[in-house]
Each structure stands twice: as C-alpha cells, then as structure tokens.
Design brief:
Layout lengths: L1 H8 L2 H35 L10 E4 L6 H6 L3 E3 L1 H27 L8 E3 L6 E3 L13
Antiparallel strand pairs: 1-2, 3-4
Helix pairs in contact: 2-4
Length: about 140
C-alpha cells in the first residue's frame, strides 16, 4: 500500500497539480493585495471616502461604529462591505485568468480543416471529396 501511495504521490500530474495550487495561492494573495491596497481605496475615494471594511449591519448585540469594535463586543454582524471587497477580488481574478487563457490561445497552432459538411445530408465528409459517401450527392 505504501508503494502504491508513493507512485501516486510522485506521479508527474500530481506534482504539477501541487505546483499549480501553490502558485494559485500566491496569485490569490497578490490579487487580494491589489484589491485591498489599490482598487478599493480608489473606489472609496470616488464614493465619498466610504471604508468598505466597516460597512456592516448589527443583527444582535450593541451597535458599534466600527466592525472591529462590534466583533470585540461579540455582536452578530452582517459584513456586506467585506462581501463587496470579495466580489471585486473575484472579478479581478476572473479577468486576469480570462486574459491569460486568451493570450495562451494565441500561441496554439490552428487545427487544419480536413472535413466539410455535405450540403444535402449535412454529414461530415473529406474536404476533397467530390461525392458524398452517405447520400451520393455530387459536390
């Protein structure tokens, strides 16, 4: 059993997955920093200096002016400002992944076209065929 586990753990795709997870975690920290340190302050400035980290509603317990005070008083809070920050974070990650995949797709070689559809039966046929093998239509 140990030998089987060792083969499984040291298989190439398992190591690739581990590297991908580690890089993904580091990438997530960078995007979170960009969101919290660069984008949210600009959005806060545009919206009239709103501190998104302190946007919350107290559901139970004493009402406090900051989220840290409410949490230290063990009040039950609905932290919608943190949710807004996480949504911006997600949108940034999705945008960067989209742009990365789009850039990588430009380096792929196009697959040569080897078939076409018969205009009568719509079956795939060789692009150089002069007669459809399915319905015998001349092309």
């Amino acid at each position: 059993m140990f030998k089987d586990f060792k083969e499984f753990a040291l298989r190439g795709n398992m190591m690739d997955l581990a590297v991908g997870v580690i890089i993904g975690a580091a990438f997530g920290k960078i995007i979170t920093s960009i969101t919290n340190d660069l984008i949210m302050p600009v959005i806060s400035l545009i919206t009239g200096r709103i501190d998104f980290n302190n946007l919350f509603v107290t559901l139970a317990g004493p009402h406090m002016s900051t989220l840290a005070e409410a949490q230290s008083a063990q009040a039950v809070t609905l932290n919608y400002g943190s949710f807004i920050t996480n949504v911006v974070d997600f949108i940034l990650i999705a945008l960067v992944v989209f742009l990365l995949v789009r850039a990588l797709n430009r380096f792929r070689k196009p697959v040569p076209v080897t078939t076409k559809s018969c205009p009568r039966c719509m079956m795939p046929i060789n692009k150089d065929a002069t007669r459809c093998p399915h319905c015998t239509t001349e092309l």
